[in-house]
Automatic annotation (TrEMBL):
GO MF annotations, alphabetized: ligase activity; ubiquitin-protein transferase activity
PANTHER family linked: E3 UBIQUITIN-PROTEIN LIGASE HECTD3
Encoding gene, per UniProt annotation: Hectd3_2
Residue span, DOC domain: 9-189
Name of the protein in question: HECD3 ligase
Length: 232
């Protein structure tokens, strides 16, 4: 049941509180090496191997060595990781080595599903976000380089960068709602911590349910804008 005196505005403020004290804090930490168990690549040129993707050096890079359109980077993720942001760190020394169009796939190793295709702005020469706001753990993420600029043959990446967290980092508990944490949320101040916890669990369950059916509801890009406006 809805708590006495509770309104939609209270739920909105509780949602902001949950974001501020969970995902936003966790996204500030770069856990690329901590959350990736291994990285595979389609090929590599001499002295431009896979280790350069995570060495945090500005002067090294991974360079493919194979036919165009068949370059990929596969990230094997540790169990329980959830990716919030994934960037490609471009190497802008030679334009034809910069990816122009990439596709991201994710899921179980033998059942990868298309997540997103990104057309990289021709003016981008540094870091490009290619994936964001995953809601569940994906054992494998595969970045497929579909096309390079200027009809380039191979690709260079200075590295990859990730913001991610463990699934269990977001487990709710009543201790989250201590009075000292509620001072910037006037609608929540003075509310019973156990009640806020139960309401937060309800919101989290609702979000998970919406996420589970969202891909059936949102129209594909080729659908008319009228379809999307009707849904909205």
């Amino acid at each position: 049941s809805v708590p006495p005196g509770w309104s939609y505005e209270h739920d909105m403020e509780l949602g902001r509180f949950l974001y501020d004290h969970s995902e936003r804090e966790l996204q500030r930490v770069d856990r690329t090496k901590e959350h990736i168990s291994s990285i595979e690549v389609s090929s590599h040129a001499e002295d431009c191997g896979v280790a350069h993707l995570t060495d945090n050096q500005t002067y090294t890079f991974w360079e493919s060595d194979g036919p165009p359109g068949q370059h990929w980077v596969r990230l094997n993720m540790k169990k329980g990781t959830i990716v919030k942001r994934l960037w490609l760190m471009l190497d802008g020394q030679i334009s034809s080595y910069i990816p122009r169009r990439v596709a991201v796939y994710g899921g179980a190793p033998n059942r990868l599903q298309h997540l997103r295709t990104v057309l990289i702005n021709e003016n981008s020469f540094q870091d490009v976000c290619i994936l964001r706001d995953m809601k569940s753990h994906l054992p494998v993420l595969e970045i497929r380089i579909l096309e390079c600029r200027d009809q380039g043959y191979n690709v260079r990446l200075r590295g990859i960068k990730m913001r991610s967290f463990w699934e269990w980092d977001l487990i709710l508990n009543a201790d989250m709602f201590r009075p000292a944490r509620l001072v910037r949320y006037p609608l929540l101040e003075g509310a019973d911590a156990d009640m806020l916890y139960r309401r937060a669990v309800l919101i989290q369950r609702f979000v998970h349910l919406v996420d589970s059916v969202l891909h059936y509801m949102i129209p594909f890009p080729e659908d008319s804008i009228g379809t999307f406006n009707a849904l909205r």
